[in-house]
Amino acid sequence: MLTSAIIITIIAIIATIDYNGPLLMLHRPLVTGALTGLALGDFTQGLIIGATLELMWLGVTGIGGYTPPDTISGAIIGTAFGILSGQGATAGIAIAVPVAVVTQQLDVIAKTVDIFFVKKAEKAASKGDMSKIDLYHYSCLLVIVLFKIIPIFVAILVGGEYIKDLFDKIPPIIMTGLNVAGGMLPAIGFGMLLNMMLKKKMWVFLLVGFICSAFGGMSTIGISLVGVAAAYLFTNNITPAEPKVVTEVASNNIEEEEYDL
């Protein structure tokens, strides 16, 4: 388990840096779950668990000072334990959700500690010392990474040996309940996402997708292609109207200025 724990920890480092920097979507559960499965020798199961968690956490985002559940730790530990226990997505979701909530508080603590470096950076900025500003900036990232990877490494290294025995002792009726809950949670993720997306002019696209699925029998890929086409038409036929008005006003102002001269 030591080698697997080290590889998974490296995955967590990459995901954490991506989340706090370039945002190449390497931190999403779909990617981290698949990579965790690959590290444990079961890429397919990792992809399944990661995709399930991705659907569940579609609408999870940090707005303002709010710190969302730690989906990186939740997805990695949940996927790892789901594979090691042999219970798949059922165990993955059952473990990922509480882990994400608990490690969320560690993320808050890490960012609180980073205030120390922010104050140091402010003093360096007042003196014009740019090299120290970079140092304090990356020190903040280092603290966040450490608070993220230490729990993941310990959980995989220590908990991996006992997780299968733990789930073997859980009564079948509870596992059945976890299966049902696992099927419902992705719907909650879609609901959170739609709550942000559905505005006055956007509900019609949901209706189009529903009609394609319920009455047209189209696959998810087919509906996605219809969505791409609808988005293209909407973007090119509706939104360019505003820039035309601005252009006309600007040209009128130019004509008036030339006339005044």
Describe the protein's architecture and organization.
It contains 11 helices and no strands. The model has no long low-confidence stretch (mean pLDDT 83). Helix content is 80%, strand content 0%. The radius of gyration is 24 Å and the shape is flat. The chain has 2 domains: 1-190, no CATH class; 200-237, no CATH class. It has helices at residues 2-19, 29-39, 43-56, 71-85, 89-126, 130-159, 163-168, 172-197, 203-214, 220-237, 241-260. It is found in: Cell membrane.
Principal-axis shape: flat
Q: Helical residue percent?
A: over 70%
- Average pLDDT score: 83
Class from helix and strand fractions: mainly alpha
Distance between the termini: 81 Å
Binned strand content: under 5%
Low-confidence stretches are none
Q: Return the domain count.
A: 2
Computed over alpha carbons, the radius of gyration is 24 Å
Mind describing the biggest β-sheet?
none
Helix count from the secondary structure assignment: 11
Pfam families: EII-Sor
Protein name: PTS sugar transporter
Transmembrane segments: 6-26, 47-66, 72-102, 135-158, 170-193, 205-234
Subcellular location: Cell membrane
